[in-house]
Queue: 2 jobs
Job 1
Amino acid sequence: GWSIGGYSTTWAAKHYNDVKAVVLDATFDDILPLALRQMPDVLEPLVKLTIRCYADLNVAANLAEYQGLIKLVRRSQDEIIATDPGDLASNRGNMLLSKLLRRRYPLLINATTEPILCNWLVTTAAEQASLMEEFNVNREECRQILNEYKEQYGSKYPYSSLGAQLTDEQHIQLVLYLAEHYMVDFAANHVTPLPSRIFMNITT
């Protein structure tokens, strides 16, 4: 699902069990902040009422009920789904990833890991790689922790107890690993066609 089509894609994924994987490109968590950006402040109450009653496109809420594979494509130069065009930190794809991780791995997103995740989200791919190195993220060890959890508790989300017996360092490593796993950065604006390589690793 691309852009606003992320809503219809996630609605279908939520309601139809045969949807095994979802790719969301240049989409948002909730349309309300984007709608508010376009309107004068004096109309904020009216905008909120209208959106919530008649056009409540909440992609994050749909994803919260979906159990399948997910890949998010964030366009680092996106001028449409950023509340402040040109500012990567305001890209609503960041909030979508944060909400997804909080829903699927509730114990991992905490006061220790949240600032580091926020830092990861405001950087581009090269800087993200440096952050992974700084915190000694071992991808194989992270996969092993996740696989051991699934063997013991099953694969249904949320992984409610994942992290209960882990150190703060392991929490950070897992959050960064999962952020990299779920989100792909694409250095382009909102309408540039996606290259085929983006779809190569959807099941990894």
Job 2
Amino acid sequence: ADHQLKTLFRAKLAEFIKTLEERDEDILRNRILSDQPLTLDELGDKYGITKERTRQLEARIIKRLRDYIKKDIKDFDRLRV
């Protein structure tokens, strides 16, 4: 069951990524999903925004992702490690 849940999560994540603007997708991939995440400063410099604004965008992306996944995956909270 956990394998099916993780497979569903990956599929939903791929769908969610398609809904993002380029900058938000970059933040998701290079900050949230990366094994070696960029710092808030690095992403801020890349987009000409402050570290705080980058943090705000990151928080918004995480909330949107959580909401997107929760509507279809009832056991989403079990996936969190």
